[in-house]
Amino acid sequence: MALLTPEDLANMTNALVENDRLITELTDYSLDGLCRKIYGTVPRNEKIAIIPVTAGNGIIGSFSESLLFTVQHFGMDGFITENTDVAGYYEAVTNGADIILMADDLAYIAHNLRNGKIAHNQICTGRIYAEILCHAKDYADDKDVLVIGLGKVGTPALETFLNEKQNVYVFDVDSKRVDEILTDYPVFKYDPAKEPKSFFKIFEATPCADTICESALKENSIVSTPGIPLGISDELIEKYKVRVVSEPLGIGTLSMLYDVF
Ligand SMILES: NC(=O)C1=CN([C@@H]2O[C@H](COP(=O)(O)OP(=O)(O)OC[C@H]3O[C@@H](n4cnc5c(N)ncnc54)[C@H](O)[C@@H]3O)[C@@H](O)[C@H]2O)C=CC1
Ligand SMILES: NCCC[C@@H](N)C(=O)NCCCC[C@H](N)C(=O)O
Known about the structure:
single chain
């Protein structure tokens, strides 16, 4: 999995606030309101503990602080444990935590100690970024959506689009992965060389820049992308007046929390 860097998180607080405003403009739901709608849950003053984890590549500068900002920005009660790892887990539980947030290099989870629910960042991220496109009021009648990147985030997104009755076109550089997806899901292969097609709604989740080609775009397209780095160039954003929902950590984190409330 591509790991976050401190640079990825440098502008995270502004990005979360700006993307919340954009999501509200696009869907008439705030991010918080959209999470409540899709999960059917609400926060009930849960105490949320954030545990820094030193395993693998270790602690990522401002990762825990970014989670705390997210928790507090949406009016919830959170704290970062002073201790890391197992000692941090013990500190969290003995200080009354209801929900644990923690991440190593392989998984970032939310675990509700009261109801047993557990959420995975890649699944919840794919789901929320897909739901933002499904709720885009300008394109409510246009069911076509392009999904670029069919990995651990893109696949839950694809499943969300299908559940929301979208016509899903898929692309990935890994042709074997495309074949697997075409076998397992009722989706269409996106092959611009053979059959050019442009979209008002594009989802991207790859670890590469500039994955969205000009021929896929329409004027005023919406790109909803957790992918890091950004999968569309500034030039194309400007040329096609593209609205881009893109933020490194907070949107997926809020989705995880609503999944375990
Ligand atoms: N913003 C957020 O909250 C989050 C962001 N991410 C980011 O999302 C991205 C995807 O994460 P995962 O799905 O876990 O990775 P993954 O490795 O499971 O999947 C990535 C997929 O993209 C495909 N791909 C790579 N280069 C491509 C290209 N140029 N064009 C088309 N497809 C291409 C790969 O073949 C693979 O199938 C990563 O950049 C990750 O850092 C992940 C979780 C949360
Ligand atoms: N954008 C959300 C997905 C994050 C994921 N790509 C990642 O970097 N995971 C590693 C996080 C490691 C955190 C570290 N163990 C700490 O606790 O600071």
